[in-house]
Amino acid sequence: MEILKKGIVKLVAAMPEPVVFIFAKKYIAGNKLEDAMRVTEELNSKGIYTTIDVLGEGIVSKEEAIESQKQILEIFDIIEERKLKSNVSIKPTQMGLMIDKEFAYKLISEIAEKASSYNNFVRIDMEDSSTTDATIEIYKRLHQKYDNIGIVIQAYLKRSFDDVAALNPLGTNYRLCKGIYVEPKEIAFKDRDEIRENYLKILTKIIDDGNYIGIATHDEYLINKAYEIIKERNLSKDKFEFQMLYGVTENLRDKINSDGYKIRIYVPFGEQWYPYSVRRLQENPHIAWYITKSIFSLK
Fold this sequence. Notes:
By secondary structure, this protein is an alpha/beta fold. The protein has twelve helices and eight strands.
């Protein structure tokens, strides 16, 4: 069955974009900013927080980066205007990291300044391993000026525990996820149990060192383990939250919410939905299988 599911993902990825969108729309709010705001309002009405994510990475010109920044600054204005329970995530390559590091730093710094003026928060996403060092460097520089920024750590990278050990003394705010980019086995764990073990090792280190943690996973095993750690340490609710992606495991999302824990959903939107959606399908091939069954009324 797993081979069949993965085969469906490969087939979907080879299809024309309008067909792929049938699968993709489960994972994205839509193409427009207003779509993300609508979804955020719906989730907020259930007591669920969001992070709005403008899709797009690896831009190739400073002009594109400036346009991306303008859109993100606008998002903060709208969040404030509508009093939404939401912050924003950004990708360094979306801000021109691969073109000019100083240019990217300047754009991200201006975003952090705007967020700070609204007492809001910016999450700096982690991308593939070619950008890890530069992303951490930018975070460290920004942290010297702003306390409303956080970073993402990917548990499948073998370096991540050491990165956390170095960042914890700064009082870093984390989003801890498994990781989704395809990386060589020399630098990344491939076995599911190894990734889980490293995730929990990093999670425990972050908590024990007193840092804020966004526990970002759809893995019920890891969620249950996180519950155990939280209860064992009698961890205050202002020291953590759970995070998930839009369109994935809503049943677990609702359970966490009903259990009284803060839950935040990443709400992606934008014209650059295609590469994001293919990665989501590769990560969760059972979704493609589920939708295929629905389309063809398979039992």
